[in-house]
Design goal:
Layout lengths: L2 E7 L2 H23 L2 E5 L6 H7 L4 H4 L5 E5 L1 E3 L9 H13 L15 H16 L11 E4 L24 E2 L2 E2 L4 E6 L1 H5 L3 E6 L5 H9 L18 E7 L7 E2 L2 E2 L7 E4 L6
Parallel strand pairs: 1-10, 2-3, 2-5, 5-9, 9-10
Antiparallel strand pairs: 1-13, 4-8, 6-8, 7-8, 11-12
Helix pairs in contact: 1-2, 2-4
């Protein structure tokens, strides 16, 4: 089982800065060691300032973007120019500022029927990672968010997608949203070298505590299913999101430089 860390930054700006630093450091290391950096990005509002930060100096000069390959952890079933598109978010905030080669952008073709989009994206992964049958991609980094209901990517509570162990990508119908999503499956995510949850705000504090330190109940809190097989899992939090976390010394402390502590034990 991989290693789990919790990093707490005092403010959202500090959190974004620390996450940008971790992103480019991982990119530099992957390119140096393996010649490329493969990352699956998250959608939603929380990553927006991270992508904007990465597209500015000095961050954009740190990474050799010609060797960075962008994928997506999940996507809404909408065309790429739709306001809800996770791809469009990245185009507007990151791609416009870094000059990434078009062939390095591997989007979900979510304008297709959802199941067809999932099948197509699974083929994209198999081709890029040159996967033999029955093997899983090995992303250098998968960036995830966390919903107040405990979902991550598009793995929602009490949905069959949580227990898919053969497919790389699926297209679940999410009743509460009355729509389909296209998402990487749990084992696809858990084979990554690094998995990073980026969470901010007190509104997510109780959910963070339940996922990280609460009783194991993944049907209720799907993010509990995310634990890399032999990589590292990082919870990157601001003080608000970490407010309900406990350590052996009491509440997780934050400092001007942020704090990093092991995640507390979870009862099963």
């Amino acid at each position: 089982m991989g290693t789990v860390h919790v990093h707490v930054a005092p403010t959202l700006d500090d959190l974004i800065r620390a996450t940008a630093e971790r992103f480019v450091a991982l990119a530099e290391a992957a390119i140096r060691e393996r010649g490329a950096f493969t990352v699956a990005l998250a959608g939603g509002s929380t990553p927006r300032p991270l992508y904007e930060r990465l597209a500015t100096s000095p961050w954009k000069e740190r990474a050799d973007w010609t060797k960075v390959h962008l994928f997506w952890g999940d996507e809404r079933a909408v065309p790429p120019d739709h306001p809800d598109s996770n791809y469009r978010l990245v185009v507007e905030t990151l791609l416009a500022g870094i000059g990434l080669p078009v062939e390095n952008v591997h989007r979900v073709e979510a304008e297709r029927p959802p199941e067809k989009a999932a099948e197509r994206y699974e083929q994209v992964l198999q081709d890029h990672f040159r996967l033999p049958p029955g093997h899983w991609p090995r992303f250098d980094l998968i960036l995830l968010g966390l919903g107040a209901d405990g979902h991550t990517a598009s793995l929602f509570p009490h949905t069959p997608a949580l227990w898919e162990h053969r497919r790389l990508v699926v297209a679940p119908f999410v009743p509460k949203l009355r729509s389909h999503r296209i998402t990487l499956t749990v084992p696809t995510i858990n084979h990554a070298r690094q998995i990073l949850f980026l969470v901010s705000g007190e509104a997510k504090a109780e959910t963070v505590a339940r996922v990280v330190q609460g009783t194991y109940a993944p049907d209720e809190y799907p993010a509990q299913l995310i634990h890399p097989r032999d990589g590292e899992l990082w919870w990157m939090l601001d003080a608000g999101a970490a407010k309900a976390l406990q350590t052996s010394g009491g509440q997780v402390a934050s400092t001007s430089a942020g704090s990093t502590t092991p995640a507390g034990p979870r009862s099963t």
